[in-house]
UniProtKB/TrEMBL annotation:
Transmembrane annotation, as ranges: 21-49, 61-83, 103-123, 135-155, 229-257, 277-298
Presence of keyword Transmembrane helix: yes
Protein name: Energy-coupling factor transporter transmembrane protein EcfT
Record bears the keyword Transmembrane: yes
Signal peptide: none
Record keywords: Membrane, Transmembrane, Transmembrane helix
Record organism: Adlercreutzia caecimuris
């Protein structure tokens, strides 16, 4: 049974096997709306959709990241009233400054936006691999494709190299774990940072020489990819455009409006506003629902064998 589950051709992450252009359009639209619309309704729905997608894809392994997102929301919400004293509902006084409920809600909205955007960026980075980025931009903007590929690889490569250097220094008793005092730990950390800096400079020179040896930048590239626009992708594009259009109509009708200062207020629940909220919820949760449906169909096909 475990082998058959591992052979599942569908899986929970539908973007991992879809056309890269579809994934790019989806994540771009979701991230832009999440970051541009400072509404508690839109931000909360976006965070919930990103969290459901992470749980559907990774299961329990996603719980630490989701917990960190909630901590981020709570931190921003709690800290914002310390700097922003606007608002009419004073909860308490901190060092002679009013701590207002409106400023707390404003910080909660900002924190929710930030946490949701980080989760969506994480999902996009997992789906849009360097191979897919090169396929999308390699022909029309090879320099941009190269930069994006290097940026996507930068953080995980740095993390692996930092762990390798730290473990090697710990093995000889020179790592931060074996250092005495704050000064010793700082020196050990600075040594690891210096090694990372030297490695990154050498890697940059090696990458530049490798690109030059392959004739990068001397002419138009001819990218190759195994991706094809299928009827399934066409249906997904139509659904994406339709939901995005309804979201746009809802935003034009005031679905994204919110008054946080000096008093909290949301827009009236008119049909267009509710339609905009519902379309946004459908947009952020659609991949999870499709993936869950395919997973259920796969399990049913296994049970009938």
């Amino acid at each position: 049974m475990g082998l058959l589950f591992a052979m599942n051709p569908f899986g929970r992450d539908i973007f991992a096997r879809s056309h890269p252009g579809l994934a790019l359009a989806y994540f771009t639209s979701v991230i832009v709306v999440t970051m541009a619309v400072a509404s508690p309704v839109f931000a909360g729905i976006s965070l919930a959709g990103a969290a459901l997608g992470a749980l559907a894809t990774w299961g329990r392994a996603a719980l630490p990241g989701l917990g960190a997102s909630l901590v981020l929301v709570a931190f921003v919400a709690a800290v914002n009233p310390l700097f922003n004293t606007a608002g009419s509902t004073v909860l308490l006084s901190v060092v002679g400054r009013p701590y207002t409920a409106e400023a707390f809600l404003f910080g909660a909205v900002l924190g929710t936006q930030l946490a949701a955007a980080l989760l969506w960026f994480s999902a996009a980075g997992r789906v849009l691999t360097p191979e897919k980025v090169t396929y999308l931009f390699g022909g029309i903007a090879p320099a941009l494709a190269c930069v994006l590929t290097l940026v996507v690889r930068l953080v995980p490569a740095y993390g692996r190299r930092a762990r390798a250097v730290a473990e090697a220094r710990d093995a000889i008793g020179c790592g931060p774990a074996g250092a005495c005092g704050a000064v010793g730990k700082a020196r050990a950390g600075a040594t690891v940072l210096a090694a990372l800096t030297a490695w990154s400079l050498e890697q940059g020179v090696t990458t530049a020489d490798s690109l030059a040896a392959r004739g990068f930048g001397t002419g138009r590239r001819t990218p190759w990819g195994r991706y094809r626009l299928t009827a399934r992708a066409g249906v997904a594009v139509v659904a994406l455009v339709a939901l995005a259009a309804v979201v746009g109509v809802g935003l034009a009708a005031g679905a994204g409006w919110v008054q946080l200062l000096p008093q909290f207020a949301l827009p009236a629940a008119s049909p267009l506003v509710v339609a905009g909220w519902a379309a946004w919820a459908g947009l952020v949760i659609a991949p999870t629902l499709v993936g869950a449906g395919e997973e259920a169909l796969w399990r049913c096909s296994l049970s009938t064998r």
